Amino acid sequence: MIPSYFRLDDRDAYGRWRESRLARAPRDVGDLVVEVGDIAALSGAELAALRDRLGRCNMAVYAERPKPGRDDKAALKSLGARLGLATLDANALADDDGITPLAVHREGQRARYIPYTERPITWHTDGYYNPPERIVRALLLHCAGKAAEGGANRLMDHEMLYILLRDQDPELIRVLMQPDAMTIPGNDEEGLTRPATVGPVFSVNADGSLHMRYTARSRNVVWSEAAAPAAAAIRRLLDGPSPHIFEHVLEPGQGLVSNNPLHTREPFKDDPASPRLLYRARYHERIS
């Protein structure tokens, strides 16, 4: 059931929800950070602090001291389980355990894809090309090695973008919730074949929370005629200055826990002697 504040005909409910969201929104990236001892063994207070940030803006940044020799992938899966996450989205380039190591590849299959290069990645939510039965609702990142230069992430709560768009014109929300708003054409490359996916940008999960499926790429995406102006409005909001967009470079021992908000990755320079390495876990559940 769609909550009343997401129904375009209920202005009063939306107004109350909007006021609450804006009042609780973080003011800077420092408001997102939670110091923890060990992500594989969170205390009750640490878990509550992460959930507090998630409740305010769908994301939190944890900071622990780097632990040389630890299995960071196993620790990340333990963190996911503590947050109530169970079903990893095992995409084709993930390791056998369902977690993807993001590092620069100079050759091989991964080298053909931007996440495994030093190039920037524009605004998106993870899994925007997935079919409806494999929606990515939660995203965890853990930094094991920092780039020599650059590599910051920009982050924006998708609920905040929803508010900005609806305040501008509720019709933008209506067309972005249509089932044919955004199409990602199929991929026929060897080893990564997938069909075209068609779906809305904004949708409501079974628990009443808001989900966003989006990419700012200009290639390999097709907008419906009705949604094209709304897509342009999104780009204007994301490309302009905003107090709701945060930028952060993850340090070793830091990571992101999130309900798959909008994010980017800035270009970076890699040092092969001390390479950038992030572990990524995508889940079909949402962190409640």
Automatic annotation (TrEMBL):
The keyword Cell division does not apply. InterPro entries: TauD-like_sf, TauD/TfdA-like. Keywords: Dioxygenase, Oxidoreductase. It holds the Pfam family TauD. One of its GO terms (molecular function) is 2-oxoglutarate-dependent dioxygenase activity. Residues 74-281 form the TauD/TfdA-like domain. This is Probable taurine catabolism dioxygenase. It comes from Paramagnetospirillum magneticum (strain ATCC 700264 / AMB-1) (Magnetospirillum magneticum). The lineage of its organism: Bacteria, Pseudomonadati, Pseudomonadota, Alphaproteobacteria, Rhodospirillales.
